[in-house]
C-alpha cells in the first residue's frame, strides 16, 4: 500500500486536515521554508491520539515535529521529509485552575499568557511578554529572559508520546538547563500548568513595561 493510500485510510477516521507537500513558509515566523511531506492539523486531542497511533505503523515516516509560530525554527527551502503537526484552536485554551494557577494550551502565545496573568493579578509571568512564541515551544526551550524562565513558574506539563499515550509530568521530574531540559524529544506538549504570585496590577504592569523597554 502506498503512503498516500495509508494516509487516506487515516483521513477517514478523523476530521482534521491532512495535506501533502504543503508549503511551510506561510506558517513560519520568517515566511521561509519549503513543503512538509505531511502536514496535520488536529481538531482535538482525540484526533491527535488516533493519528499518532495510526501513523506509527507507517515505516516510511521517520520524523514528527510540532510547529508553533516558528519564531525559533528555520525551515530548509527543501522542506521537511516527515510529519509536521500544527495545532489550532483546540490547543489554545487558557484558564485559571485556582486563584494562583494558570493552565495554558500548547498553542497559546506566550504574550497572551502574560496578559491573562495580569488580568488575574498574577506575577511571575511578566517575562513572557517578551517571548515571541507559544507555550509549547517555551516549555521545550525553557524560554526566558532577564533572569527569569519557564522553570521558575511551571508546575507540570501535559504531553502525548508518539504512541498516543497521554502523560502528566510534574516539574519535580524535569531537569531544566539553559534553553533546554531532559524532556524526551518524542513528547508532544499539549498544555502546561503554571503557578504565580498575587500582586497588585500596577506592580505587574510596571515590571512588564520595564522588560519590554529592555528588549
Description:
The protein has helices at about 5-10, 45-55, 110-120, 135-140, 200-215, and strands spanning about 15-25, 35-40, 65, 80-85, 95-100, 100-105, 120-125, 145, 150, 155-160, 165-170, 175, 180, 185-195, 195-200. The protein has five helices and 15 strands. The N and C termini lie far apart (about 55 Å). A five-stranded antiparallel beta sheet has the order 5-6-14-10-11. Strands 1-2-4-3 form a four-stranded mixed beta sheet, with no helix packed on it. The model has no long low-confidence stretch (mean pLDDT about 90). The protein is an alpha+beta fold and about 220 residues long.
Short summary of the structure?
The protein is an alpha+beta fold and 215 residues long. The protein has helices at 3-11, 45-55, 110-119, 135-141, 201-214; strands spanning 17-23, 35-41, 64-66, 80-85, 94-98, 101-105, 122-123, 144-145, 148-149, 154-161, 166-170, 176-177, 180-181, 187-195, 197-198. The radius of gyration is 18 Å and the shape is elongated.
What key attributes describe this structure?
31% strand; alpha+beta
Task: Tell me the series of helices and strands, N- to C-terminal.
Answer: HEEHEEEEHEHEEEEEEEEH
- Rounded to an integer in angstroms, the radius of gyration calculated over CA atoms is 18 Å
User: Structural class, from secondary structure content?
Assistant: alpha+beta
- Spans of at least 5 consecutive residues with low confidence: none
User: Terminal Cα separation, in Å?
Assistant: 53 Å
Largest sheet: 5 strands, antiparallel
Q: Quick one: overall form? A: elongated
Which whole number gives the mean pLDDT? 92
Give the neighbour order of strands across the main sheet: 5-6-14-10-11
The tally of helices reads 5
Number of strands: 15
Strand content: 25-35%
Estimate the helix proportion, in percent: 10-25%
Amino acid at each position: 500500500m502506498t503512503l498516500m493510500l495509508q494516509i487516506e485510510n487515516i483521513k477517514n477516521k478523523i476530521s482534521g486536515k491532512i495535506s501533502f507537500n504543503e508549503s511551510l513558509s506561510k506558517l513560519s515566523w520568517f515566511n521561509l521554508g519549503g513543503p512538509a511531506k505531511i502536514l496535520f492539523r488536529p481538531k482535538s486531542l482525540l484526533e491527535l491520539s488516533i493519528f499518532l497511533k495510526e501513523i506509527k505503523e507507517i515505516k516510511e515516516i521517520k520524523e514528527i515535529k510540532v510547529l508553533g509560530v516558528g519564531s525559533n525554527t528555520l525551515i530548509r527551502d527543501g522542506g521537511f521529509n516527515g510529519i509536521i503537526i500544527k495545532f489550532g484552536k483546540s490547543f489554545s485554551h487558557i484558564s485559571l485552575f485556582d486563584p494562583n494557577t494558570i493552565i495554558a494550551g500548547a498553542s497559546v502565545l506566550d504574550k497572551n499568557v502574560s496578559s491573562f496573568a495580569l488580568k488575574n493579578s498574577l506575577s511571575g509571568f511578566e517575562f513572557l511578554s517578551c517571548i515571541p512564541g507559544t507555550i509549547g515551544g517555551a516549555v521545550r526551550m525553557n524560554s526566558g529572559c532577564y533572569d527569569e524562565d519557564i522553570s521558575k513558574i511551571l508546575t507540570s506539563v501535559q504531553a502525548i508520546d508518539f504512541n498516543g499515550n497521554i502523560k502528566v509530568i510534574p516539574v519535580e521530574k524535569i531537569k531544566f538547563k539553559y534553553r533546554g531540559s531532559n524532556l524526551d524529544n518524542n513528547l508532544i506538549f499539549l498544555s502546561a500548568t503554571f503557578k504565580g504570585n498575587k500582586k497588585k496590577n500596577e506592580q505587574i504592569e510596571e515590571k512588564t513595561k520595564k522588560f519590554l523597554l529592555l528588549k
